[in-house]
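User: Some background: our group keeps a shared notebook of sequences we're curious about, and every so often someone picks one and asks for a predicted structure to add to the entry. Today it's my turn. The entry only has the sequence so far, pasted here. Could you supply the structure so I can complete it?
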Amino acid sequence: MNETERHIQLSAIHVRWSADERTFIARSDQFPAVAYRHDSSLAAMNGLIDAIHEHLGAVTSVPGGDAEREH
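Assistant: Of course. Here's the predicted structure to add to the notebook entry:
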């Protein structure tokens, strides 16, 4: 499958502020093992979508943020 043809549909993205880490953390219930942290809430959401694509095998990235996979 061509990477540009890969689509995901999320029912919701949850973004919360972590005062301890001073960053926004974005997650989706559909992919609980993937989260994305950024100092911008919008960039955290965009980064989460890219991290989910990467998690599914499509290689994408957003500079300036930190993706994480929880085990």
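Suggested note for the entry: The mean pLDDT is 81. The helical segments are 41-55.
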